[in-house]
Amino acid sequence: MNGIREIFDTGIRQNIFTMLSRKGNIIGKGKRRIGILISFIVLSFFSFTWYWSNEGKCNPFTAYSCWTGMPYDQPNPFRPSKVGFMVLTPWLAPIIFDGTYNLDVLNAQFHQRGVRVGLTVFAVRKYNIFVKSLIETAEQFFMAGHKVNYYVFTDDVRAIPKIMVKEGRSLVILKISGYKRWQDITMRRMQFIHDYIAERLINEVDYLACLDADMKFTDNVGVEILGDLVGVIHHGYFGKPRIEFPNERRNKSEAYIPVDTGDFYYTGCFFGGRVEEVYKLTNFCHNAMMEDKEKNIEAIWHDESYLNKYFLYHKPTKLLSPEYASNDNGPTYVIKRKKIIHVPKNYRVIRN
Ligand SMILES: CC(=O)N[C@H]1[C@@H](OP(=O)(O)OP(=O)(O)OC[C@H]2O[C@@H](n3ccc(=O)[nH]c3=O)[C@H](O)[C@@H]2O)O[C@H](CO)[C@H](O)[C@@H]1O
Ligand SMILES: [Mn+2]
Fold first, then answer.
1. What residues form the catalytic site here (predicted)?
2. What is the pLDDT averaged over residues 159-182?
């Protein structure tokens, strides 16, 4: 009992400045050291309990602003963008880079609306091997604190492993018929997404994120990506002259884009937006593919080419930087934080 009192007296009640001003050993010796350790543990315990009870919205370092109800810095209109790249397109759509937004402010807005987000992924034939790591990393990094439904479209329901998802989130496995050619599998995603939006997604989610299967999350991806119509700039063509974009150049194709036209080259592996907008997008892409099929032509990069055609005339209202779709070779001067990456794969093995 005496020992404990001594720890309290000499350790906890000691004026912290006296301890810090002592020369040499900053936290003192013996009982005092134990006292300081205990204070530190107790303080940390309360701070973090409080942090979690606030669903992570306030943290111990912003405690004061949380109490006062002003949990963020006032925007300073004189401060130039830190990023060093274009952050607003000529049609006034933001380009999302890490460091351009305040997630606390955005989260508060989207929480008020109780936003529901759907993530679609296709795992046909051998691509079911990618599902586990995609969903597990999404559980870690995707839309933390928001309602999420994963929709996995597959030709083999039993091949999709059991994956536990957090409360407020669900995993829906949808059986679809596969196609023989891998090109048809990737292109027909547009038709499936379109049909399932009308059948059920329109009633279940507000926004959709449509991803390739061979990807995984490596950092936080939150509501900053949500917008009416969202395209992701392909990491390989960031800042390249548009003549080099691998758009479809045969003018008989519905995906045709002339060399002197085009803003950015968008990746086919990730697009999204409000569910109604994704419905229009997938409708256009699927119909364009069907018209080309009639004409016996298939665009050079399949669904990606039709997507780029759509975005040319229906400009995205929000663009995501290549941070949201890169791989190990992405340009590091552009990509400061890799948030979603392509998993390396052996094309010959996986597509046959
Ligand atoms: C980074 C990028 O620009 N990605 C695009 C590029 O990707 P990739 O070369 O990465 O295409 P990919 O092999 O990942 O195929 C696209 C997606 O289709 C699905 N799939 C494909 C084959 C299969 O047997 N089973 C299956 O489920 C799966 O979800 C896969 O992720 O080119 C494709 C068309 O050529 C698509 O436009 C991709 O979105
Ligand atoms: Mn892919």
1. 304
2. 96
Residue 194 known to bind ligand:
no
Pairwise pLDDT comparison (178 vs 48), residue with the higher score: 178
Looking at the 3D structure of the chain, how many domains does it have? 2
**Which of the ligands is closest to the CA of residue 182?**
1
CA–chain centroid gap for 95, Å, is: 14
pLDDT at 73: 81
Q: Which of 13-17, 71-75, 165-169 has the highest mean pLDDT?
A: 165-169
Reported ipTM: the value is 0.94
Are both 143 and 282 inside the same structural domain? yes
Rounded to whole angstroms, the Cα distance separating 211 from 215 reads: 8
Q: Which of 177, 212, 308 to mutate to test the pocket of ligand 1 (most atoms within 8 A of CB)?
A: 212
Does 309 reside within a domain? yes
In a domain, 83, yes or no: no
The answer to whether 213 is a known ligand-binding residue is yes
Cα separation, 308 vs 319, in Å, equals: 13
Residue 104 assigned as binding residue:
no
pLDDT score of 62? 53
304 is catalytic: yes
Q: Is the pLDDT of residue 24 over 50?
A: no
CB-CB neighbours of 168 under 10 Å: 12
- Domain range holding 15? 2-67
Ligand sitting nearest the alpha carbon of 121: 1
d(CA 229, CA 208): 10
Strands 318-320 and 95-96: parallel
Mean pLDDT of 288-304: 98
Ligand 1 atom closest to residue 350's alpha carbon, by position in its atom list: 24
